[in-house]
């Protein structure tokens, strides 16, 4: 039979044409199936391997491509090339996610939202991996596995465990600030487009003269902040568990591109030792009255992924991915994430995951001596020199890109931050809420704490009371706990 040259031929992974994709090769019409049907075994074997391990946290997510545009001159603070000129645009990819739920979790669940950004700069990829909240539940990475265990499923019942959640929080008073945000209206944002984003951690910027400052990032939604009430979120979780995923995709498809104005707070290095809160403690914010928001740019998402798995599921973000002009701070939580995120992706997508198109930098990605490994998907460096130092013209280090030093001191020991005021900022936040917002906050907390053991309730009420007496009293009243017992 003459082959139609215009016909698109179905082929095996090795390129052989497939003659029949509807029927297995069998011994007669009844069978059995023959082992020689290599197309059948190839399809089944690949199907068994189509899923990679889901992220331990941030498993459910949606993403989009876009750009970051510089709108204000920041060169007096940083030499980062992608921030060097007003009007400069850098391509980027953003992923939004819930934190605690599995991949099939509902978008409307009460949970912080991941706000992960990858900037494809001329100096390599810069990843800013934050949340839609400026703070977090804990401030030391050594507590992170335990915290996440409380958010997952009970080892015996395989159900969510309110006792574990509130037991941990009640024994970790640093969590109160984030708990207050989580159970406010901000815990159930309407969509990924209608929420702010934050770098959360403190980072260091350094300019061309080697002068450094501490910096925090803020992304303010241009769509306006919109949230669901608890009742609306619970209903939507059952009716349309993918509502935010769909909303992001459809808004971009119809040309309604989500955008955020980008700001930073700048702190002189010397202020870190005299500020009333430790500026590296991720459970605290810098007061904007002390360090005002400074506009620097605009983020726009204008293109949907062509394939969810290739671009969203396989995307790998790590705060360790920085560029010259941007560096880390002593933030203990950040320091732990510098290892944990990259290691998680090495487990999920493999040691060569950086070579995947979504994760590959626009700079030369093979300018190093990392070779071999599972799923090496380029020429593996060809016949180029594979060690360093060498005299054969291989890539060499560039001392001019050495990060600016800063002084550290202290005794080597396991120790907490010096400043332990866990109540002022949550109290300030509570008092900023309107009466209707306070009522919803109390209702949300009471509803979540009702299944919890009495002794845990009492411990947690005391934290609310220390933040603001009214805060504690209203939670106690809602739980039916006598005021004397609460104290």
UniProtKB/TrEMBL annotation:
The active site is at residues 58, 131. It is an enzyme of class 1 (oxidoreductase). One of its GO terms (cellular component) is cytoplasm. It catalyses: 2 H2O2 = O2 + 2 H2O. Its cofactor is heme. Heme binds at residue 341. GO terms for molecular function: catalase activity; heme binding; metal ion binding. The keyword Metal-binding applies. Residues 11-396 form the Catalase core domain. GO terms for biological process: hydrogen peroxide catabolic process; response to hydrogen peroxide. Gene3D superfamilies: Catalase core domain (2.40.180.10). It holds the Pfam family Catalase-rel. It comes from the Bacteria. PROSITE patterns: CATALASE_1, CATALASE_2, CATALASE_3. Keywords: Heme, Hydrogen peroxide, Iron, Metal-binding, Oxidoreductase, Peroxidase. The keyword Repeat does not apply. SUPFAM superfamilies: Heme-dependent catalase-like. This is Catalase. The lineage of its organism: Bacteria, Bacillati, Bacillota, Bacilli, Bacillales.
